[in-house]
Write a structure and sequence with these properties.
This protein is of the alpha/beta class. It has one domain: Kinesin (3-Layer(aba) Sandwich), CATH 3.40.850. The protein has helices spanning 21-25, 68-85, 101-105, 119-133, 193-213, 266-270, 276-289, 301-305, 329-342, and strands spanning 8-9, 11-16, 32-34, 38-44, 54-62, 88-95, 137-148, 151-154, 169-172, 180-183, 188-190, 222-234, 240-251, 315-322, 346-347. The longest helix has 21 residues, at 193-213. It starts with 7 loop residues before the first strand and ends in a 7-residue tail after the last strand. 46% of the residues are buried. The structure holds adenosine-5'-diphosphate. The site of adenosine-5'-diphosphate has 13 residues, from helix 3. GO terms for molecular function: ATP binding; microtubule binding; plus-end-directed microtubule motor activity. One of its GO terms (biological process) is microtubule-based movement. It is found in: Cytoplasm, Cytoskeleton.
């Protein structure tokens, strides 16, 4: 079932957005800077006039002028190649609400390759472009899931989006330990990138509608968009080979919902809105980095579902999104520390083929 496997660290990249209107209006100075449009270092000052700055290094750092195409080319294009080889890959977007997670993941959903199209539409566009040029038989399926308050909602099912889907259950794939799937979820067969865009727009609207109707903030939910690709190839000695690659694109809840050390913040605790999944994600990362004996995957829906992406057989990338402005410095530092810690997680990716 698997071929060679080598341990690799999780890839961690940071994207700094431009200052927004509010930050400019309030004259909140820029305290996080990058060396140009892209590089590996990020410089943080408590005040713009400070002579000293603290430097953080990541696998990649994108400055406010980096566009969607650049993020795709540098981060996602190599991952798509891995998916086509039969690996499972996951990209997480992590950060405070308003820092650009959805912009990075979805961006403009009206076209697959427009200037503002994000990772999901661009990936689909490139995926179909590549598959159509190959001789092999293939199929592409997508699913779109939301986790809110530890309840799963299928964003592609025709059901009422305000009702959590009782039929959705997480089950463990016994053939692939740590690879958990959701039973009962729509996995839609798609034939073109445009097909998926239409589906995605519906799913994305469904998320918004449900949030508005129930007075919930969509910044407290996690969204997992999954693309599964089956490719059938014939080897030179006439044998059929089936490769199955999977890409999870995860837009996490706003990181302000949990505090710096992964502990819940007072405000969140009081309001009874502890985000169990985000909290557990932090604990899982800490336990993996500290090489703990017990990794608390089972304590949240998100970490159960994505267990394999954290210390498992999946190739994983985290895109941490931050604001450059002083008024958000505390949250940005918390995001940078979190992302920096995650760099130490090691996965051992394996190809799925039979
Ligand atoms: P989040 O999903 O983290 O809450 P959003 O993706 O909704 O944040 O971004 C908040 C706003 O900032 C949106 O209007 C988005 O278009 C804009 N934005 C975010 N990142 C960038 C960027 N790198 N360049 C330009 N605009 C951005």
């Amino acid at each position: 079932m698997s071929s060679e496997s080598k341990e690799t660290n999780i890839n961690v990249v940071v994207r700094v957005r431009p200052r927004n209107q509010k930050e400019i209006r309030e004259n909140s100075p820029i305290v996080i800077s990058t060396s140009g449009v892209k590089g590996k270092d990020l410089h943080v000052k408590a005040n713009p006039s400070d002579p000293q700055s603290k430097t953080y290094s990541f696998d990649k750092v994108f400055g406010p002028d980096a566009d969607q195409q650049m993020v795709y080319d540098e981060v996602v294009a190599p991952i798509l190649e891995e998916v086509l080889m039969g690996y499972n890959c996951t990209i997480f977007a992590y950060g405070q609400t308003g820092t650009g997670k959805t912009h990075t993941m979805e961006g403009d959903l009206t076209s697959c390759a427009g200037k503002d199209a994000g990772i999901i539409p661009r990936t689909l566009y490139r995926l179909f472009d590549k598959l159509e040029k190959e001789d092999s038989e293939y199929s592409v399926r997508v699913s779109f899931l939301e986790i809110y308050n530890e309840e799963l909602r299928d964003l592609l099912s025709p059901d009422d989006p305000t009702v959590p889907s009782v039929k959705l259950k997480i089950f463990e794939d016994m053939n692939r330990r740590g690879s958990n799937e959701v039973q009962g979820m729509e996995k839609i067969l798609v034939n073109s990138a445009q097909d998926v865009i239409t589906i995605l727009q519906k799913g994305s609207n469904k998320r918004q509608t449900a949030a508005t109707k129930m007075n919930e903030a969509s910044s407290r939910s996690h969204c997992i968009f999954t693309i599964t690709v089956h490719i059938k190839e014939t080897t030179s000695d006439g044998e059929d080979l089936l490769k199955v690659g999977k890409l999870n694109l995860v837009d996490l809840a706003g990181s302000e919902n949990v505090g710096r050390s992964g502990a819940e913040k007072g405000r969140a605790k009081e309001a009874g809105m502890i985000n169990q999944s985000l909290l557990t994600l932090g604990r899982v990362i800490n336990a993996l980095v500290e090489k703990g004996l017990h990794i608390p995957y089972r304590e949240s829906k998100l970490t159960r579902l994505l267990q394999d992406s954290l210390g498992g057989k999946t190739k994983t990338c985290i895109v941490a999104a931050v604001s450059p402005a002083k008024c958000n410095l505390e949250e940005s530092l918390s995001t940078l520390d979190y992302a920096h810690r995650a760099k130490n997680i090691r996965n051992k990716p394996e190809v799925n083929q039979r």
